Amino acid sequence: DGLQKLRVPRWLGALLVTIGLLGVAAGTVLLVIWGLVDRADEIVDQFELALVQIREWLAQIGLSDELAARFREQTASSGDLAGGGVLSAIVGGLTGFTSFPIGALIAINILFFMMKDAHSIAAWTRARASGVVAKTLLGDASRTLRAYFRGRTVVGAASTVTVYLGALLLGVPL
Asked: Which of 18, 20, 134, 144 has a beta carbon 3.0–4.6 Å from 126's, enabling a disulfide?
């Protein structure tokens, strides 16, 4: 509605907002990937230190390296069980990997057309329902949706602040 007040056509405003949201999402993904690649050596070093610490803990409770090696051999020799578990995990991961882009595409499509045609849909509904019913129905529906997304935004912001402060307190490199 803000862009429409600036005389930007509704379809163009919806397209600009959708492209902007996609840009923010792509930028976020690129920042995460860049951070992982930039700190890959440090991540590997920390992982190796964690493995050493786990071995020390296991030794403290009496689990020797020999017993751990025997356990590893036994689990590796049960190929059907382990192979099936690994295969199902791979297939499940691929399913999730392919379903996310499809769901995201559907969500982007719905978002675009809701921004573009919301007023047309409301006018169509008002024309087919009696005045009080249409006004009440549309008013309640739009108020509920706005409250839902406002609440989601507040919860998301609170989660972001909590995770950021927790990461700072724990000394996680940001």
From this structure: 134
Separation CA 144–CA 150 (nearest Å) = 10
As a whole number of angstroms, the distance between CA 129 and CA 134 comes to 5
Interval 130-171: pLDDT, tens: 777 777 877 888 889 889 989 999 999 999 999 999 988 988
Contact 63, 70 (CB under 8 A): no
Identify the CA nearest to 128 among candidates 118, 138, 141, 115. 138
Section 107-116 average pLDDT? 87
First-to-last alpha carbon distance for the chain, in angstroms, is: 37
Sign of the torsion formed by the C-alpha atoms of 16, 25, 160 and 151: positive
CB-side exposure of 76: number of CA atoms within 13 Å?
6
Nearest by Cα to 9 from 109, 121, 119: 119
Round to whole Å and give the CA distance between 135 and 127.
11
**Of 139, 159, 158, 136, which Cα lies nearest the Cα of 147?**
139
The structure's pTM equals: 0.53
